[in-house]
Amino acid sequence: MENFLVNNRPMSPKDWGIDVALAVAALLFGCVQLMVTSSSLVVHDLALRQYLGTVNVVPDASVFVALALTTLPLVARRRFPWPVFLFVMVVFLGLQSSFRGLSLTMIGPAVALYTIASERGRVEALVAAVLAVGGLLFVDMSARTASLIFFTRFQNIAFAAAAALAGYAYRTHRAYVVETEQRALEAERACGEEAARRVEEARVRIAREVHDITAHSLSAVSIQAAAAERLIDRDPEAAKQAIATARTTAKDALEEIRSMIGVLRCDDVAETEPTAGTERMEDLAVYLRNAGVETILDRGGYDRSRVPAYVDVALYGIAREAATNIVRHADARTAVMRLTLDGSTARLDIEDDGRGRGDAVTPGGHGIAGMAERVGLLDGTFWAGNRAQGGFAVRVGLPLGGTGASHV
User: Fold this and answer.
1) Domain containing 92: what range?
2) Which DSSP state fits 328?
3) Which tops the pLDDT comparison, 53 or 279?
4) CA-based angle 145:131:31, to the nearest 5?
5) Rounded to an integer, what distance in angstroms lies between the CA atom of residue 48 and that of residue 325?
6) Which residue has the higher pLDDT, 343 or 217?
7) Which of 139, 166, 186 is the last residue of a domain?
């Protein structure tokens, strides 16, 4: 019952002020309407005024008291919508025939009905509208003529219907605005989550790239430094060459890392060269040969012009990681790196005759796991494991994607 009597909604001082102003405005409007309709301002013809029974009709204090009873309760209309509506409607209908030649204004009951429709929903608005229309249809009127009674009754019913429809329309509009705002907030939150996910993916990708660069380059530097240490006494020229190679490798690695960091800068445009792709596969073969691994590079079945840039770059990154793992873990004598195109798939096969190794080759999840993750992001196929005849193999298949991909 409390839910029927009281509308549990917060009311600020501003809301109360608006309702007080509305109630006073409704009272003033009713007073003006009474004065105007009871004078000759509306109906000028004396004979017609005599026929309607509005000659020498002067509103007394009781009329204004009745009008106040149908308007001033609107102060509490939003806090107590049903009690206010029932009170002003009963007073309006009960006093409608009490004043000869005068009809109370419908403004108070119309505003109360509008409040129920806007605050309480469709069902309660329909019930209130039916009660109002039913009361207006059967209430006695103070007018003398049937035509005036019909006009007044029709006018009041039209006001009641318009008030109910306006209140329901406002409620629907308000609900639509709230839903739109919620959807906008959800969309903003989803965008924030998507941005956070992309940042995390970028962080993992950068960590993988830095790992690939440093692991590959430091392995090469370590090999050349060890060679220089062995040759420095008996072959100084060869030792110098090994040191120069180590220095060049370190310089290239620093430039790659600097370029990668430059991409992350927001306020400046990073000046970088295109990301390395399979055109640098020969560098990997040289890297393996310098490490003492006889390497065969087969690119006869591969056409870079048909391969999207992101696929070509991914293949080179995987090949670089695999080459680094061969040097660091395989203890191999020979290795084969093969690039081919198989229909709409680019394939990379790398094999060695080393001692084989487990899946978790590189600590920290940036070895085999990093290769598998890179392939998974491109919806490709990946396999890495020990060969039956000895050694280790990495096999990758990447789809070439749609025609809209950029090519190298």
Assistant:
1) 2-186
2) I
3) 279
4) 55
5) 109
6) 343
7) 186
